[in-house]
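Cross-check.
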Amino acid sequence: AENSKSSKSTVMPPGPPMYLDLVYIPNHSNRKNVDVEFFKRVRSSYYVVSGNDSAAEEPSRAVLDSLLEGKAQWDNNMQVTLIPTHDSEVMREWYQETHEKQQDLNIMVLASSSTVVMQDESFPACKIEL
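Predicted model, tokenized:
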């Protein structure tokens, strides 16, 4: 029988990393659901950062910082692109304050003014909602 008692609670138990192409950060990037262990394990080329509710702390600055901390522990420096669904104050501040670290870790953030162009139509990249 496994010992279910844990000295600290983590959202995701430790284990081998998973490599994915696109990950939608759960629950509007709320820190109750996502921590450093999540980003150490769930390694993706693209993360969609949802949330535009500063009252509910979404997206959470702690989640964005967890990405930097988790990515720093990857054994490779693959490029990661963050896709924010909204232009939020939290995202802007985090982007400016941690820009150097993002560059060191090969993390790119799609700016809110990014536009996706597909054949006959174009639309803002920040309007992606799943």
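Residues 1-8 have pLDDT under 50 and may be disordered. Residues 82 and 109 are 5 Å apart (CA to CA). Passed to J.P. for a second look.
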